[in-house]
Structure prediction request, 148 residues.
Amino acid sequence: MPTPQPATTSQKEYAIPTAYRKMENLHILFWLVKDISWCMIWRPLGLLMVVPTLGIALVITWRTRANKSELAHNLAIVFWITANSYWMSSEFFGFDAVRVLPHVTGKELALVPFLIGLGILAYYYLVQKPRETPDSPVAAVSSAAPAA
Prediction:
């Protein structure tokens, strides 16, 4: 029986090395445990899970930095997790409803990293993406093992 050949397309395909995919899947697990801990008010576990959740997001961002689209989206995720973790902490430590600035509560300060992430994506879609050529690769194509 002949070996199947990949389809030929005019666009490059996005391929994620297996080691990267495993890390992304582990990242999702940590993120879910963090948010479940927040929901259940399991303060120690929720706070502990911030470290691997944010840490893996930073590693993923670093490893995809060569591609502008991946970098923008992964940076937005880093700021989303940062905002989400700060918001969780504000509730765990009871300063979520406390006014820290006139008309701003502790929880509302989470808007700062949320808006930074949104700003990164806005810049990508409004400025960077229109400058990309149709022949630009969607993402780095790699089937090789990732560099450490």
